[in-house]
TrEMBL record:
Residues 306-384 form the Secretion system C-terminal sorting domain. Keywords: Signal. Residues 1-19 form the signal peptide. This is Secretion system C-terminal sorting domain-containing protein. Pfam families: Por_Secre_tail. The keyword Hydrolase does not apply. InterPro entries: Quinoprotein_ADH-like_sf, Secre_tail. It comes from the Bacteria. The lineage of its organism: Bacteria, Pseudomonadati, Bacteroidota, Flavobacteriia, Flavobacteriales.
Protein backbone atom coordinates (compact mmCIF):
# COMPACT_ATOMS: atom_id res chain seq x y z
CA UNK A 1 0.00 0.00 0.00
CA UNK A 2 1.22 3.48 -0.86
CA UNK A 3 2.80 5.39 2.01
CA UNK A 4 1.56 8.91 2.65
CA UNK A 5 4.17 11.63 3.01
CA UNK A 6 2.16 14.11 5.07
CA UNK A 7 4.16 16.20 7.57
CA UNK A 8 4.84 14.52 10.91
CA UNK A 9 2.26 16.55 12.80
CA UNK A 10 -0.53 14.86 10.86
CA UNK A 11 0.33 11.51 12.43
CA UNK A 12 -0.88 12.84 15.78
CA UNK A 13 -4.32 13.98 14.70
CA UNK A 14 -6.33 10.85 15.47
CA UNK A 15 -6.38 11.41 19.20
CA UNK A 16 -7.88 14.88 18.76
CA UNK A 17 -10.95 13.94 16.71
CA UNK A 18 -13.96 15.46 18.42
CA UNK A 19 -17.07 13.54 19.37
CA UNK A 20 -19.88 14.45 17.02
CA UNK A 21 -22.68 12.93 14.98
CA UNK A 22 -20.52 11.07 12.50
CA UNK A 23 -21.34 7.38 13.07
CA UNK A 24 -24.65 5.88 11.97
CA UNK A 25 -26.51 2.58 12.04
CA UNK A 26 -29.28 0.99 10.02
CA UNK A 27 -31.27 -0.75 12.75
CA UNK A 28 -33.90 -3.44 12.42
CA UNK A 29 -36.75 -4.60 14.58
CA UNK A 30 -36.31 -7.33 17.20
CA UNK A 31 -37.31 -10.16 14.88
CA UNK A 32 -35.54 -13.11 13.18
CA UNK A 33 -36.35 -11.58 9.77
CA UNK A 34 -34.92 -8.42 8.21
CA UNK A 35 -37.40 -5.66 9.06
CA UNK A 36 -36.25 -2.03 8.85
CA UNK A 37 -36.83 0.08 11.94
CA UNK A 38 -34.69 3.24 11.72
CA UNK A 39 -31.50 5.08 10.84
CA UNK A 40 -29.85 6.42 13.98
CA UNK A 41 -26.66 8.05 15.22
CA UNK A 42 -24.36 6.02 17.48
CA UNK A 43 -22.15 7.41 20.22
CA UNK A 44 -19.18 5.06 20.28
CA UNK A 45 -17.59 6.69 23.33
CA UNK A 46 -20.16 4.91 25.48
CA UNK A 47 -21.77 2.56 22.96
CA UNK A 48 -25.24 4.07 23.13
CA UNK A 49 -27.82 5.15 20.58
CA UNK A 50 -28.33 8.78 19.70
CA UNK A 51 -30.90 10.56 17.55
CA UNK A 52 -33.25 8.49 15.41
CA UNK A 53 -32.93 10.33 12.11
CA UNK A 54 -35.54 8.47 10.05
CA UNK A 55 -37.81 5.55 10.95
CA UNK A 56 -40.16 3.10 9.25
CA UNK A 57 -43.05 5.24 10.55
CA UNK A 58 -41.64 8.64 9.58
CA UNK A 59 -43.47 10.83 7.11
CA UNK A 60 -41.39 10.45 3.93
CA UNK A 61 -40.94 13.44 1.60
CA UNK A 62 -39.50 11.90 -1.57
CA UNK A 63 -38.29 13.90 -4.57
CA UNK A 64 -37.60 12.03 -7.81
CA UNK A 65 -34.44 13.14 -9.58
CA UNK A 66 -35.63 11.68 -12.90
CA UNK A 67 -39.16 13.08 -12.76
CA UNK A 68 -38.02 16.35 -11.17
CA UNK A 69 -40.84 16.39 -8.67
CA UNK A 70 -42.32 14.89 -5.53
CA UNK A 71 -43.58 11.31 -5.67
CA UNK A 72 -45.86 9.15 -3.54
CA UNK A 73 -44.52 5.64 -3.03
CA UNK A 74 -46.28 2.36 -2.35
CA UNK A 75 -45.12 1.30 1.12
CA UNK A 76 -46.08 -2.30 0.40
CA UNK A 77 -43.65 -2.51 -2.53
CA UNK A 78 -40.00 -3.57 -2.47
CA UNK A 79 -38.86 -0.27 -3.98
CA UNK A 80 -39.75 2.46 -1.52
CA UNK A 81 -37.77 4.63 0.89
CA UNK A 82 -39.04 2.69 3.92
CA UNK A 83 -38.89 -0.82 2.48
CA UNK A 84 -38.85 -3.69 4.95
CA UNK A 85 -35.66 -5.23 3.57
CA UNK A 86 -32.60 -2.95 3.77
CA UNK A 87 -28.94 -3.78 4.28
CA UNK A 88 -26.91 -0.85 2.90
CA UNK A 89 -25.98 2.55 4.31
CA UNK A 90 -23.26 5.12 3.60
CA UNK A 91 -22.64 8.60 5.00
CA UNK A 92 -21.81 11.46 2.64
CA UNK A 93 -20.27 13.85 5.16
CA UNK A 94 -19.65 16.55 2.53
CA UNK A 95 -23.40 17.02 2.10
CA UNK A 96 -24.62 15.55 5.43
CA UNK A 97 -26.57 12.85 3.56
CA UNK A 98 -27.32 9.22 4.33
CA UNK A 99 -27.31 7.10 1.17
CA UNK A 100 -29.01 3.69 1.06
CA UNK A 101 -30.71 1.08 -1.12
CA UNK A 102 -33.55 -1.36 -0.38
CA UNK A 103 -32.21 -4.91 -0.71
CA UNK A 104 -34.69 -6.04 -3.38
CA UNK A 105 -34.63 -2.84 -5.44
CA UNK A 106 -32.24 -0.91 -7.67
CA UNK A 107 -33.53 2.42 -6.30
CA UNK A 108 -31.01 4.63 -4.50
CA UNK A 109 -32.20 7.02 -1.79
CA UNK A 110 -30.36 10.07 -0.47
CA UNK A 111 -31.65 11.26 2.91
CA UNK A 112 -30.66 14.72 4.11
CA UNK A 113 -29.91 14.12 7.78
CA UNK A 114 -30.89 17.69 8.70
CA UNK A 115 -34.02 18.42 6.64
CA UNK A 116 -35.14 14.74 6.41
CA UNK A 117 -35.91 15.26 2.72
CA UNK A 118 -35.22 12.28 0.45
CA UNK A 119 -33.98 12.25 -3.13
CA UNK A 120 -34.90 9.19 -5.18
CA UNK A 121 -32.25 8.22 -7.75
CA UNK A 122 -33.90 5.87 -10.22
CA UNK A 123 -31.08 3.51 -11.06
CA UNK A 124 -31.18 1.67 -14.37
CA UNK A 125 -27.65 0.30 -14.03
CA UNK A 126 -28.13 -2.28 -11.27
CA UNK A 127 -29.91 -5.52 -12.10
CA UNK A 128 -31.61 -6.62 -8.87
CA UNK A 129 -34.46 -9.07 -8.35
CA UNK A 130 -36.02 -10.15 -5.06
CA UNK A 131 -35.58 -13.86 -5.81
CA UNK A 132 -31.88 -13.72 -6.75
CA UNK A 133 -29.70 -13.53 -3.63
CA UNK A 134 -26.60 -13.04 -5.81
CA UNK A 135 -27.94 -9.71 -7.11
CA UNK A 136 -28.81 -8.16 -3.73
CA UNK A 137 -26.70 -5.10 -2.87
CA UNK A 138 -25.60 -5.62 0.73
CA UNK A 139 -22.33 -3.67 1.01
CA UNK A 140 -21.97 0.12 0.72
CA UNK A 141 -19.45 2.78 1.80
CA UNK A 142 -18.24 6.26 0.91
CA UNK A 143 -14.91 6.23 -0.94
CA UNK A 144 -12.07 8.61 -0.15
CA UNK A 145 -12.84 10.42 -3.42
CA UNK A 146 -16.30 11.37 -2.11
CA UNK A 147 -18.29 8.96 -4.29
CA UNK A 148 -20.50 6.23 -2.83
CA UNK A 149 -19.62 2.62 -3.72
CA UNK A 150 -21.78 -0.49 -3.45
CA UNK A 151 -21.25 -4.19 -4.19
CA UNK A 152 -23.79 -6.95 -4.63
CA UNK A 153 -23.46 -10.33 -2.92
CA UNK A 154 -21.73 -12.11 -5.79
CA UNK A 155 -19.45 -9.22 -6.76
CA UNK A 156 -20.91 -9.12 -10.26
CA UNK A 157 -21.90 -5.46 -9.88
CA UNK A 158 -19.62 -2.82 -8.40
CA UNK A 159 -21.55 0.46 -8.42
CA UNK A 160 -20.19 4.00 -8.15
CA UNK A 161 -22.67 6.73 -7.19
CA UNK A 162 -21.21 10.16 -7.93
CA UNK A 163 -22.62 13.63 -7.63
CA UNK A 164 -22.36 15.85 -10.70
CA UNK A 165 -23.61 19.26 -9.64
CA UNK A 166 -27.10 18.62 -8.22
CA UNK A 167 -27.53 15.26 -9.96
CA UNK A 168 -26.45 11.77 -8.94
CA UNK A 169 -24.93 9.54 -11.61
CA UNK A 170 -24.56 5.75 -11.29
CA UNK A 171 -21.80 3.78 -13.03
CA UNK A 172 -21.18 0.04 -13.09
CA UNK A 173 -17.43 -0.43 -12.61
CA UNK A 174 -17.49 -4.11 -13.58
CA UNK A 175 -17.22 -7.59 -12.08
CA UNK A 176 -15.00 -8.23 -9.06
CA UNK A 177 -13.11 -11.50 -9.32
CA UNK A 178 -11.22 -13.58 -6.78
CA UNK A 179 -7.49 -13.08 -6.45
CA UNK A 180 -5.64 -16.22 -7.54
CA UNK A 181 -4.35 -16.70 -3.97
CA UNK A 182 -7.81 -16.90 -2.35
CA UNK A 183 -8.21 -20.66 -2.71
CA UNK A 184 -11.20 -21.93 -0.74
CA UNK A 185 -11.83 -18.47 0.73
CA UNK A 186 -13.76 -17.20 -2.26
CA UNK A 187 -15.24 -13.71 -2.42
CA UNK A 188 -18.03 -14.92 -4.70
CA UNK A 189 -19.55 -17.85 -2.77
CA UNK A 190 -22.24 -17.78 -0.08
CA UNK A 191 -20.29 -19.57 2.66
CA UNK A 192 -17.22 -17.34 2.58
CA UNK A 193 -17.92 -14.08 0.78
CA UNK A 194 -21.58 -13.04 0.80
CA UNK A 195 -23.29 -10.34 2.86
CA UNK A 196 -21.72 -8.11 5.48
CA UNK A 197 -20.55 -4.58 4.75
CA UNK A 198 -17.48 -2.68 3.58
CA UNK A 199 -15.20 0.21 4.50
CA UNK A 200 -12.81 2.38 2.48
CA UNK A 201 -9.21 3.38 3.05
CA UNK A 202 -7.32 6.55 2.15
CA UNK A 203 -6.00 4.97 -1.07
CA UNK A 204 -9.58 4.38 -2.29
CA UNK A 205 -9.34 0.65 -1.77
CA UNK A 206 -12.19 -1.16 -0.04
CA UNK A 207 -12.32 -3.86 2.61
CA UNK A 208 -15.36 -6.13 2.55
CA UNK A 209 -16.29 -7.72 5.88
CA UNK A 210 -18.43 -10.68 4.84
CA UNK A 211 -21.15 -12.11 7.07
CA UNK A 212 -18.90 -15.10 7.84
CA UNK A 213 -16.21 -12.84 9.31
CA UNK A 214 -13.86 -13.14 6.33
CA UNK A 215 -12.19 -9.91 5.19
CA UNK A 216 -11.32 -9.15 1.56
CA UNK A 217 -9.38 -6.21 0.17
CA UNK A 218 -10.95 -4.97 -3.08
CA UNK A 219 -8.86 -3.05 -5.58
CA UNK A 220 -10.91 -0.67 -7.73
CA UNK A 221 -8.24 -0.57 -10.44
CA UNK A 222 -7.76 -4.33 -10.74
CA UNK A 223 -11.35 -5.34 -9.84
CA UNK A 224 -9.98 -8.14 -7.69
CA UNK A 225 -10.82 -9.22 -4.14
CA UNK A 226 -7.89 -10.58 -2.12
CA UNK A 227 -8.58 -12.63 1.01
CA UNK A 228 -6.93 -10.86 3.96
CA UNK A 229 -7.99 -13.14 6.80
CA UNK A 230 -10.76 -13.97 9.24
CA UNK A 231 -11.74 -11.86 12.24
CA UNK A 232 -10.69 -13.39 15.56
CA UNK A 233 -12.10 -12.63 19.01
CA UNK A 234 -15.81 -12.81 18.08
CA UNK A 235 -18.23 -15.68 18.86
CA UNK A 236 -18.17 -18.50 16.32
CA UNK A 237 -21.77 -17.88 15.23
CA UNK A 238 -21.41 -14.07 15.05
CA UNK A 239 -22.93 -12.72 11.82
CA UNK A 240 -21.04 -9.64 10.63
CA UNK A 241 -23.61 -7.37 9.00
CA UNK A 242 -22.26 -3.86 9.50
CA UNK A 243 -18.79 -2.29 9.43
CA UNK A 244 -17.49 1.28 9.59
CA UNK A 245 -14.28 3.05 10.64
CA UNK A 246 -14.28 5.01 13.90
CA UNK A 247 -12.31 8.15 14.80
CA UNK A 248 -9.38 6.01 16.00
CA UNK A 249 -9.02 4.31 12.63
CA UNK A 250 -10.35 0.99 13.93
CA UNK A 251 -13.24 -0.86 12.30
CA UNK A 252 -16.45 -1.30 14.29
CA UNK A 253 -18.54 -4.33 13.33
CA UNK A 254 -22.15 -5.11 14.21
CA UNK A 255 -24.61 -7.96 13.80
CA UNK A 256 -28.24 -8.20 12.72
CA UNK A 257 -28.75 -10.90 15.35
CA UNK A 258 -28.86 -8.58 18.34
CA UNK A 259 -25.23 -9.05 19.41
CA UNK A 260 -22.68 -6.59 20.90
CA UNK A 261 -20.53 -4.24 18.84
CA UNK A 262 -16.86 -5.12 18.38
CA UNK A 263 -13.83 -3.01 17.46
CA UNK A 264 -11.44 -4.65 14.98
CA UNK A 265 -7.80 -3.79 14.29
CA UNK A 266 -7.52 -3.88 10.49
CA UNK A 267 -3.85 -4.92 10.66
CA UNK A 268 -4.33 -7.94 12.94
CA UNK A 269 -8.11 -8.57 12.49
CA UNK A 270 -8.26 -9.02 16.27
CA UNK A 271 -11.62 -7.92 17.73
CA UNK A 272 -12.53 -6.67 21.18
CA UNK A 273 -16.05 -6.16 22.48
CA UNK A 274 -17.25 -2.59 23.00
CA UNK A 275 -19.24 -1.42 25.98
CA UNK A 276 -22.77 -0.14 25.68
CA UNK A 277 -25.93 -1.50 24.09
CA UNK A 278 -25.75 -5.25 23.57
CA UNK A 279 -28.93 -6.12 21.70
CA UNK A 280 -29.22 -3.83 18.68
CA UNK A 281 -30.19 -5.53 15.42
CA UNK A 282 -27.85 -3.65 13.06
CA UNK A 283 -27.97 -4.35 9.33
CA UNK A 284 -25.35 -1.79 8.31
CA UNK A 285 -23.00 0.87 9.69
CA UNK A 286 -21.66 4.11 8.19
CA UNK A 287 -19.23 6.84 9.23
CA UNK A 288 -17.16 9.70 7.85
CA UNK A 289 -13.82 8.04 8.65
CA UNK A 290 -11.39 6.00 6.53
CA UNK A 291 -8.80 3.35 7.28
CA UNK A 292 -5.12 4.41 7.11
CA UNK A 293 -6.16 8.07 6.94
CA UNK A 294 -3.48 10.51 8.06
CA UNK A 295 -5.71 13.51 7.28
CA UNK A 296 -8.29 13.39 10.06
CA UNK A 297 -9.88 16.82 10.53
CA UNK A 298 -8.67 18.75 13.57
CA UNK A 299 -9.66 22.24 14.64
CA UNK A 300 -7.70 23.68 17.57
CA UNK A 301 -9.79 26.89 17.70
CA UNK A 302 -13.57 26.82 17.89
CA UNK A 303 -13.94 30.08 15.98
CA UNK A 304 -11.69 29.24 13.06
CA UNK A 305 -13.02 27.24 10.14
CA UNK A 306 -13.09 26.73 6.38
CA UNK A 307 -16.17 25.96 4.33
CA UNK A 308 -17.62 24.35 2.32
CA UNK A 309 -15.82 20.99 2.61
CA UNK A 310 -17.31 19.93 -0.73
CA UNK A 311 -16.09 22.58 -3.19
CA UNK A 312 -18.15 22.83 -6.37
CA UNK A 313 -16.99 26.22 -7.70
CA UNK A 314 -13.25 26.28 -6.76
CA UNK A 315 -13.77 28.76 -3.90
CA UNK A 316 -13.56 28.16 -0.15
CA UNK A 317 -14.12 30.59 2.67
CA UNK A 318 -11.75 31.05 5.62
CA UNK A 319 -13.44 32.46 8.70
CA UNK A 320 -11.75 33.53 11.93
CA UNK A 321 -13.42 35.21 14.91
CA UNK A 322 -10.99 34.69 17.77
CA UNK A 323 -8.87 37.46 19.33
CA UNK A 324 -6.31 34.91 20.52
CA UNK A 325 -5.42 34.29 16.85
CA UNK A 326 -2.88 36.99 15.97
CA UNK A 327 -0.57 37.90 13.11
CA UNK A 328 -0.64 36.65 9.54
CA UNK A 329 -1.76 33.12 8.72
CA UNK A 330 -0.71 30.68 6.00
CA UNK A 331 -3.09 28.26 4.31
CA UNK A 332 -1.39 25.25 2.70
CA UNK A 333 -3.15 22.64 0.58
CA UNK A 334 -1.75 19.08 0.30
CA UNK A 335 -2.80 16.42 -2.19
CA UNK A 336 -3.25 12.74 -1.22
CA UNK A 337 0.46 11.98 -1.64
CA UNK A 338 1.35 14.73 0.84
CA UNK A 339 2.64 17.11 -1.85
CA UNK A 340 2.20 20.84 -1.25
CA UNK A 341 0.03 21.93 -4.19
CA UNK A 342 -0.97 25.42 -3.07
CA UNK A 343 -0.07 28.08 -0.51
CA UNK A 344 -1.97 31.26 0.35
CA UNK A 345 -1.13 34.03 2.84
CA UNK A 346 -4.05 35.32 4.93
CA UNK A 347 -4.16 38.68 6.69
CA UNK A 348 -5.96 38.76 10.03
CA UNK A 349 -6.92 41.94 11.87
CA UNK A 350 -8.00 42.08 15.52
CA UNK A 351 -8.69 38.35 15.54
CA UNK A 352 -11.12 38.60 12.64
CA UNK A 353 -10.96 37.30 9.10
CA UNK A 354 -13.53 36.39 6.46
CA UNK A 355 -11.73 35.71 3.20
CA UNK A 356 -12.67 33.81 0.05
CA UNK A 357 -9.81 31.83 -1.49
CA UNK A 358 -9.69 30.62 -5.09
CA UNK A 359 -8.33 27.08 -5.38
CA UNK A 360 -6.63 27.59 -8.70
CA UNK A 361 -5.29 24.63 -10.68
CA UNK A 362 -6.71 22.03 -8.26
CA UNK A 363 -8.19 19.07 -10.11
CA UNK A 364 -11.12 17.01 -8.85
CA UNK A 365 -10.22 15.01 -5.75
CA UNK A 366 -9.62 15.07 -1.99
CA UNK A 367 -7.14 17.45 -0.33
CA UNK A 368 -5.96 18.42 3.13
CA UNK A 369 -6.07 22.12 4.07
CA UNK A 370 -3.75 23.22 6.87
CA UNK A 371 -3.71 26.69 8.45
CA UNK A 372 -0.71 27.82 10.51
CA UNK A 373 0.28 31.03 12.26
CA UNK A 374 3.53 33.02 11.86
CA UNK A 375 5.45 30.70 14.18
CA UNK A 376 4.31 27.62 12.25
CA UNK A 377 1.82 26.45 14.87
CA UNK A 378 -1.06 24.47 13.38
CA UNK A 379 -4.45 26.09 13.96
CA UNK A 380 -6.59 23.89 11.71
CA UNK A 381 -6.37 20.78 9.53
CA UNK A 382 -9.38 19.82 7.44
CA UNK A 383 -10.06 17.57 4.49
CA UNK A 384 -11.98 18.97 1.52
CA UNK A 385 -13.30 17.47 -1.69
CA UNK A 386 -12.95 19.48 -4.90
CA UNK A 387 -15.80 18.39 -7.17
CA UNK A 388 -16.41 18.97 -10.86
Amino acid sequence: MKKHLFPLFLLLLGANASAQQDFFALVGKDTPNIVFNDFRALDLTNGTSGEKIFTSDSSAKVFSQTRNGSVTEDKNAYNNSQAMNMATLAYDSYNNNLVYMPMFSSNIYVLNAKTKEITLVENNVARITSCDINSHVTRMATGYDGSIYAINNAGTQFLQISRKGNQYVVNDLGIIKDDASNGKNSFTTIETGFGGDMIADADNNFYVFSASGNVFKVSVKELKAKFVGKISGIPENYSVNGSAVNSKGKVVIASAKGAPLYEVDLNTLQAKQLAGEQNLHIYDLASKYFANDKALSTNFFANLDIYPTRVDDKYINVNVNDKTVKGNLTMTVFDLSGKNVMKQNLSIKDGSLNQQVYLKNLVTGAYLVSITNESGKILLNKKILVAE
